[in-house]
Amino acid sequence: ALRRTQTSGFLLENAITFNELKKLDESKQEKYILPVDCMLQHFPEIRLPENHILALQQGKSVQFELNQDIISPFRVYDAKNNFIGLCKAFSGSLKALRLMSLEADKV
Fold this sequence. Notes:
The chain has helices spanning 18-23, 26-29, 50-57, 103-106, and strands at 6-7, 10-11, 45-47, 62-63, 74-77, 83-90, 93-99. Helices cover 21% and strands 26% of the residues. The N and C termini lie far apart (47 Å). The protein is built from four helices and seven strands. By secondary structure, the chain is an alpha+beta fold.
């Protein structure tokens, strides 16, 4: 049988099972839990002001002019370098494709 040992820069030798992860104390778990955007590094990134991010979270498009013609989605970050989600450019504006839920941060 075939066994995949790597994909997109992730190596099997760096992986552990969920049961192994549960046995570790929290400080050691953080070594294995990667940020969500690590899987999206092949997309270009942009930083947006808070008013644009709020509009995207409300399902609105925001005006945004790009210096180049890029078709792929963008990784969107706020001014504090928090990953917000993925957006796509459409005729001088950005539309959200997938956004992160940040509700836990507000509690």
